Amino acid sequence: MLKYFFCLIFLIYMIFFGVFGGYMVGVVLGFMCFFIELFFGDLWSWGEVGFMLGVDLISYLLIFLSLIIFFYVSYVSNFFNMNNYYGYIYCSIFVFMIFVLILLFSSLNLLLFYLIFETSLIPISLMIAGWGNQWERLSAMIYLIMYMFLSSFPMLIILLNIDFNENLMNMMFVDLIFVSGLIFYFLVILMFLVKFPLFIIHLWLPSAHVEAPVDGSMILAGILLKLGGYGFCRFLVIVLSEGIFFNLFVVVISLIGVVMVSLNCLWQVDMKSLVAYSSVVHMGIGVLGGLGMMNWGMKGLIILMISHGLCSSGLFYMIGVLYNRFMSRSMYLMSGLMICMPSMGLGWFLLTSSNLSAPPSLNLLGELMVLSSLMSWSMLVCFILFFGMFFSAFYSLYLFSYVQHGAIYSGVVGFLSSGYLVEYLIIYFHWIPLNLLFMLMNLFL
């Protein structure tokens, strides 16, 4: 099992120092390590690295997603070339964050999982408060901290109660733990539904996305939202008997959220806010896959987490590219960009089409698996979810059409350039694995 540990260290070293001739070779070697371990490693069951660390297929996929997102972020920020005091602090926050995330996804002890889960809140809060764009970043940080702390503290009491009564705190045997009672059911899943986030308890997400820097938005959408999904996959089995009766309540809220937030995206004028609300829609569809209590739907949830991490991270990066040129995120100032930036328009088309689940993107596979798993649960739910998916395609078309077509705003022509090579590399590094993994769908079946 140490081969996985050494593989991860090798990937971190390549990401942060760009060895073997630069980043281009680094990402190729990283994908080679990923596929070698995936095809020839024993990842279909739990394997222990140490006393409290281990990985299975879900952990390994999310760890690799974290590594490649941090690879892209190192391109964006170039923080190892910041030769000042604030640059060193920024670099330290990123290194600490990736260390915490790898420990989180490979943790086997439930109490250690909870502690690291809460520790992951520290670096993103510092990033929003220290390197945000507006003064509202302080209120966004307070929103984030209060939502996470108030939702997760009851989970600590439940874990301590499990340790006292059953003396069983190993993630590999979590399916042997059962918690009964309506209150315990909602307290267990509340910690992860807030991090997901579920509709009604999602209000921290738009403000955090809008106020965070581009690097922070990429990490928040690409990785940190997946912490809730990962915990949801692991801990839903604890309340399996209660979920038979109470899952319907959460399903109704999630369905309302998918439809309402999709319509809400259609009157957004801030591009970053629109992509942030679209994350609520995609994660709401993922929640439905998990609550369907079928293996097919749970795999659809995992696929949606990976696809959303790549797709929304790429969209936030392209919005950051435009913000560096226009110093604005308003869609009114972005119209007609295909006239002066046609090459960048191709990247917008590819990622927005993936965001609306056009084939052959991984989003399509995940949504079809969730939809098919719910058919045996309730056809009414499938009918409403179908309309939610239909509306979710509208805002992606709205974003692409409004930004790329129309008359260009005359005040920004002097600030435009077609794009740099590194910008195209990051965009296509997001899009290529998002569509290549569709060809390997048998890995998820």
TrEMBL record:
GO terms for MF: NADH dehydrogenase (ubiquinone) activity; NADH dehydrogenase activity; ubiquinone binding
EC number from the UniProt entry: 7.1.1.2
Similarity remark: Belongs to the complex I subunit 4 family.
Gene name in the database record: ND4
Catalyses which reaction(s): a ubiquinone + NADH + 5 H(+)(in) = a ubiquinol + NAD(+) + 4 H(+)(out)
All copies of domain NADH:quinone oxidoreductase/Mrp antiporter transmembrane, residue ranges: 107-391
Protein name: NADH-ubiquinone oxidoreductase chain 4
Keywords, in A-Z order: Electron transport, Membrane, Mitochondrion, NAD, Respiratory chain, Translocase, Transmembrane, Transmembrane helix, Transport, Ubiquinone
NADH:ubiquinone oxidoreductase chain 4 N-terminal domain sequence ranges: 1-103
Signal peptide interval: none
UniProt GO cellular component terms: mitochondrial membrane
Membrane protein topology class: Multi-pass membrane protein
A biological process term (GO) from this entry: ATP synthesis coupled electron transport
Record's keyword annotation contains Aminoacyl-tRNA synthetase: no
